[in-house]
Amino acid sequence: MTTTQEALLPGTRRALLHRIAVAQAEGRAPSLVAAVVRDGQAVWHGARTSVDGHAPDETVQYRIGSITKTFTAVLVMRLRDEGLLDLGDPLEKHLPGTGAGEATIADLLAHTAGLAAESPAPWWERTPGSLRPELSDVLGEQPLLHPVGRRHHYSNPGYTVLGALVEGLRGAPWEKVLRDEILVPLGLHRTSAQPEPPHSGGWAVHPWADAMMPEPMEDLGRMAPAGQLWSTTGDLARFAAFLARGDDRVLSARSVREMRTPAAPAEAADVMDGVTYGLGMQVQRRDGRLLVGHSGSLPGFLANLTIAVEDDVAAVVLANCTSGPLLGAVGADLVRIVAEAEPRIPEPWRPLREVDPTVLELVGQWYWGTHAFGLRAGADGLLTLAPLAGGGRRARFHANGDGTWTGLEGYYAGEVLRPVRRPDGSVSHLDLGSFVFTRQPYDPGAPVPGGVDPEGWRGIG
Question: Is the preceding omega at residue 122 within 30 degrees of 0, hence cis?
Fold first, then answer.
């Protein structure tokens, strides 16, 4: 992915550089690199370093930690799309004998399987993967800490299990499947399981002194699908564009959208913080925007990938230190800077290619009881039902080909919208999951549940 620096205005580029400069200086990072993606293309790359005359560019590898999980999740979703598994399948169906077989594939993807956060001691991130050669070494004697499906509990062993699932169904090592099915098709030539020059070294920065110490770089072995990968801002910029738009060579836009959809029950603290988890992707609300992506860390490295899908802007931030700069905040700020300084220019409005009289008959104002709604037909072939004032239940519907429509999101997801016609063929009302929508509030000519008072509307006598 070629970076086109001129794609952003000079003031925007300076604001981006200022933000990462502050992050590197205040966070005391040996180096910090970042990239911004807009409209599916890298439009900015920046770097700050403590080494004079040596600023890393978009080809220098950093370890990306748990962003690896999103790659593993894509592999699992590919298996689902090929019909080799269902997200509702229990793990035992495909990978028996783990001790966590009642958890579903979706549970593992969303960290709701009830598994422990870490493998048994010693800490896996700072010890050789050879200490944990089998899944039983990763999961321990009692894999489940919580009831399956009841709570979101982030689990590194859970993604180790998903990596083993990929290997079992593909009949090949996770690393080879990853390379063949994601890295090569997307052109991520600088993403690998082992570091390839040029790559940065990982450092620990003393919390009370401006001194550093190198961190060990372990091969994670069985735990690789949870955090092994090395990558660059250039490659992760391409990956971010894929996660926003999909690519049929790897995963459809629809399946990628499913990954970005919240799938885990949020606890009270999560609701307050505006964060949740999808299928291999973190979801949060920040600065009034819905952001998706993933963070990552391993001793010596921090990483963050943030995407604002509605703004079509993404940011990648990498640093080679164990702690210091808050890369999640930096990534969100980079997205905000571009989205606010250079708002997305919408596509031109275009009319429908064909006008269906039966659809035109449905659009306009409808009432559910006394609640006013508008039903609109778009050029995308979908119907959109939304309140005319205030908040409320809003959804898009796709045509089923038989005169009915099915909801795509929110309260009406999967619910059928059915126009009910009179003997003369005209539309009497809409039936939406037993809700009756009429052209007038409580239309006496429609079968309103509970009936309509025969004296009709009145004032206070």
Answer: yes
**400/40 Cα distance (integer angstroms):** 32
Phi–psi pair at 138, nearest 5 degrees: -80, -40
108, two tokens: 């593992």
Closest CA to 426 of 441, 438, 412, 442: 438
- DSSP annotation of 4 reads -
Nearest of 267, 323, 315 to residue 291 by alpha carbon: 315
Contact yes or no for 229/192 (Cβ under 8 A): yes
Which residues sit opposite 398 in a β-bridge?
Answer: 406
Segment holding 359, helix H or strand E: helix 357-360
Express each pLDDT in 393-408 by its tens digit.
999 999 999 999 999 9
Q: Are 232 and 62 in contact (CB under 8 A)?
A: yes
What is the distance between the terminal CA atoms of the chain, rounded to a whole angstrom? 73
- Residues 308-340: tens digit of each pLDDT: 999 999 999 999 999 999 999 999 999 999 999
**Tokens read off for 24:** 């590197």
Give the chain's residues under pLDDT 70.
1-6, 461
The tokens 């910029």 sit on which residue?
A: 237
The token duo for 426 is 């005209």
3-class state of residue 183 by DSSP = helix
Q: How far apart are CA 126 and CA 218, in angstroms?
A: 6
- What is residue 305's predicted lDDT score, i.e. its pLDDT? 98
Q: Provide the residue type at 83 as one letter.
A: G
Distance from C-alpha of 356 to C-alpha of 171, rounded to nearest angstrom: 50
Residue in 36, 33, 60 with CA at minimum distance from that of residue 47? 33
E strands, 219-267, are 230-231
Are 244 and 309 spatial neighbours (Cβ–Cβ below 8 Å)?
Answer: yes
Closest CA to 310 of 244, 238, 237, 385: 244
pTM, to two decimals? 0.91
What does the alpha-carbon distance between residue 109 and residue 148 come to, in Å, rounded to a whole number? 13
Q: What pLDDT, in 10s, does the model give residues 215-244?
A: 999 999 999 999 999 999 999 999 999 999
CA distance 235 to 218: 22
Helix (H, G, I), strand (E, B) or coil at 78: helix
User: What phi and psi, each to the nearest 5 degrees, are found at residue 37?
Assistant: -115, 135
